Structures are given as structure tokens and as C-alpha cells.
Fold:
Amino acid sequence: MTESIRLRTRRKTRSFCFTSGIVFLVFAAAGCSSAVGDGSGYLPEEMSVGAARDLARRQSSVILETSGLRFETTNGGPSVSECSDVEHGYRVTHSWKVFGPSREVLTQALEKLHRELPRRGWKVVRFEQAKSKARQMRLDVEDVKLHHTVTIEEDFVPQGPDVSRWEKAGRDGLFVYLDSPCYVDTAYKGEG
Structure:
């Protein structure tokens, strides 16, 4: 019986060493900067471009649903761009804007996102005035599990005598910019 336990332990050790060796070789072949090309410190997950786009849409839906806003949004879909230093690597971005309600309602929605997103698995990275001329409020969050990052910023039409006709034609809203981590899809060749 002791011999049987020794054999099983040896097999498990060999299996672990073999698996660890493969992971090391993949990491070494890709290079450190390739494995963590997006600066995140983790290896890119394998995912088809279509699945990553769908996930970005779902993440954007979580943001909209959590905000409580039921108004008009821009219709742009997620876009794909290459991850530098990662073979067949890509990331998905999704930018959109919700507009229609008053500035007060939009500000309340941003504050609600700041409070509620952590309860849904998002970490607040920053909540402060943007470093832009307008100094409007900005919220940066990261999904702890899926590693998407999102910037949500008040996008209010400038007011005053020096505002151009083009600027006055805009609509107040919340601008949302979602960015995924790097993914790998062997079918991805670098075209968006």
C-alpha cells in the first residue's frame, strides 16, 4: 500500500512538473512583455473577437442599468484594436453617451454609479474632477474579475458668451469609455 501511494505521488509530481514546464515555456516563448503587454500583470485570456465584443456590450449594459438612466444613448458598437507585443492579441473598447436628462439627474446617476458599482464587483479607482478645462466629475472603475476598465465622465455643454454655436448645439450627458484587457484569438490578424 505504501508503494502504491509513492507511485501516485510520483505521477502527480511529474504531472505538476510537466504542466509547470509547459506554462513556463509558453511564458518564456511569448516574452515577459508579451505575456503582460497591457501592463496588467496577468496573461491574456483566449477569447474569440465576437465573444469579447458581446462581453463589452454586456459590461456597458451593466453600467447603464446601474446608473438608473432610461434615456437615449449613442448607438456605436464595440471596436477592436491590436494589443502591442502580444501575438494575435487584441482589446475591445466601447464608447458611448447617455443623454436627455437634466444636469442634476446626470450628476445623481454618476454618484449612484460610484456607490453601486462596488457592490457589483467593480473597484473604484478614481472619483474626482477631471483634469480638463471644464473640470467636470469623472469616475474610473475596474471590474475586479473581468479586468475591464471604465471611465464615466459628465459631458455638459459649455455655457457662456464665448461658447460657439457648434458647442451650444450639443446635449448634456454622461460619456462612457470601456476598455477590455488584452485577449488572444488566433483568428485575429490585426485588422479591426
In short: The chain has a mean pLDDT of 79. The helical segments are 2-30, 32-35, 49-67, 103-116, 165-168.
